[in-house]
Amino acid sequence: MNHLHRELAPITPNGWAEIEEEASQTLKRMLAGRKLFDFNGPHGWDRAAVNLGRVKPLSDAPESSARVRQRVVQPLIESRVPFEMDRDELEAAARGAPDIDLDAVADAARRAATMEDGALFNGYPEAGIDGVMQVSEHERLTISNDYSRYPGLVAEATNMLRSAGVDGPYAIALGPECYTELTRTTEQGYPVMEHVRRILKGPIVWAPAVDGAVVLSMRGGDFDLHVGQDFSIGYSHHTESTVTLYIQSSFTSLIFGPEAAVPLRHA
User: Fold this and answer.
1) What is residue 198's three-state secondary structure?
2) Which helix (H) or strand (E) is 107 found in, with range?
């Protein structure tokens, strides 16, 4: 028995396969930070913290002549998003039904992805996690309502990065509004999104957790995502009619290059 307790769930292998496939597809579509951050892991459920290689002095040592210092670490946080499945649907999966209702799985996966990306881009102060949008050393640029001017804005952001000594290639994480508007905006019949792509020479990423957008360097070493347990589905309990499951992960992030990102905000 492991900490996910899956063997206790009244779910057949076919049912588990359907649930995991739906969760995997949704997570891959929703997760933006993993496309832009350096990924470290997964290191397993027992990974508790990231060693920062630093110490802080402690007073009132038990031995007066001793110099006592404490190692500084960045703790990982655990995220658990519960969801409920109808047992009739799970039994239908066991019988080979091709159309079982997996909306609850997809919704939980979306919320789990938003939790991770929200911390990476917007920060989670209580957990000691800094967000890229908050710690950037650069002045925030204002997004115009005229999206045909977006390439100029992105060019200005990349120029700010170059002036700070930050090499490319560059990428951009676009919030839902920015992504939608850029996708449908053209300039003299040419998609504005393609202008942006040529300027960046790096990925354009749909990032639902981002309010506005952020241009980042992809040179590496600036933004780290550390994962203990990667997204996994576990069992909580069941009744005669429902089974309660959850999507669980553990992670933290570190920002070493606040000069390597330029936030773009709506006016």
Assistant:
1) helix
2) helix 103-122
Q: Considering only CA atoms, which of 51, 45, 18 is closest in space to residue 224?
A: 51
Structural domain count, the chain? 1
Supply the CATH number for residue 104's domain: 3.30.2400.30
26 belongs to a structural domain: yes
CA torsion sign, 9 to 101 to 33 to 117?
negative
Under the banding of pLDDT at 50, 70 and 90, the label for residue 210 is: very high
Q: Tell whether 1 is covered by a domain.
A: no
Range 217-236 burial, b when 16+ CB lie within 10 A, else e = bbeeebbbbbbbbbbbbbbb
Residue 38: how many other CB atoms lie within 10 Å: 16
Rounded to whole angstroms, the Cα distance separating 45 from 251 reads: 10
What DSSP state is assigned to residue 181? H
Euclidean distance between CA atoms 170 and 157, whole angstroms: 10
Instruction: Report residue 40 as tokens.
Output: 């470290």
Element (H, E) at 83: strand 77-86
CA gap 141, 224 in Å, rounded: 24
Q: Say if 162 falls within a structural domain.
A: yes
Q: Is the dihedral of CA 93, 96, 100, 104 positive or negative?
A: positive
Q: 165 Cβ partners below 8 Å, 6+ apart?
A: 259
Identify the burial level of 173 via C-beta atoms within 10 angstroms of its C-beta, where 0-12 means exposed, 13-18 middle and 19 or more buried: buried
**Which tens digits make up the pLDDT trace of 117-135?**
999 999 999 999 999 999 9
Which residues touch 51 (CB under 8 Å, ≥6 apart)? 71, 73
Three-class SS of residue 245? Answer: strand
> What element of type H or E holds 81?
strand 77-86
What is the pTM for the complete model shown? 0.92
Instruction: Note down the domain range covering 243.
Output: 6-266
Is 140 a domain residue? Answer: yes
